[in-house]
Amino acid sequence: MIRVGPVAVGTAILFGAPGFAAADGSPPRGTAEATPEARPDPAAVAAGEEANLVVRRPRTGFVFSVAGGPGFQAGVGVAASTGTGGAASLRVGHEANRDTLLTLELAATIYTHRETDPVSMTAVSSVHNSSVACVGAQTWIRPSVWIRGGVGIAVFSRDGTTAATQTRSLGGLGAVVGAGLDLFRSRRVAFDLELVGVSAIYGDGMVVGGGLAVGASLD
Known about the structure:
By secondary structure, the protein is mainly beta. The chain has helices at residues 6-14, 42-51, and strands spanning 62-76, 83-97, 100-116, 123-142, 145-158, 168-185, 189-202, 206-218.
C-alpha cells in the first residue's frame, strides 16, 4: 500500500493540484467552469434567414399587395345588394416594425344582379358593389400567419337597369378585416391565401360581404 505523506499533501494543496478546491471557494484548477447557455441575437437570426432566402416577414420599405377570388355580399335596408360574385383587395403598406405594416387599402365585394324588366319582360343584368377605402395595419402573429384590419369611408354603387333598381350611389363608413397564410415568400415576392371581409353602414342600411382570395405581394 502506498502512503501519501503530509509533505506531499501540502505540496499538492499549495500548487493547486487538480481536484482540490481553492480556499476562496473558486473552481479547482484544471476543471471547466460552467457558463450559462448563450442565446442567439434575434436580429442576427433574422439577418441569417434573409441571407439564406428564408424570409418569413415583410422587409423594410413599401409592400404592394393585390388579392382576388370568389365572394358574396348581403345587404339589409339597401335594395338589390345581396348576391354572390367576387371579392378583391388592393393594399400599399409600409413596415412599422419587423412584424407589422401600416396600410392603405381599397377592398370591395361585387356581384352581377339579374332581374326581369317589367316593361320589356326581358332579362337584364347590372353590376353592384360595396367598396371601402381605409387606413389600417397588418401584423404577423406567426412566421407565416397574419391578420389585418382598417376603417375608412365606404361607397355602394348600383348600376340600375330597371325602375325597381335605379342607378344609385350611397356613401357611408366601413371597415375591412382579413387573415392570411403565406404560402411562399422569397426576397421580394410572396403569395398567400387569405380571407377578406368588408362591411359598411350607409344611410339606407348595412352591406356586409367577404371572400376567399389568392394574393400576391411585392416588397
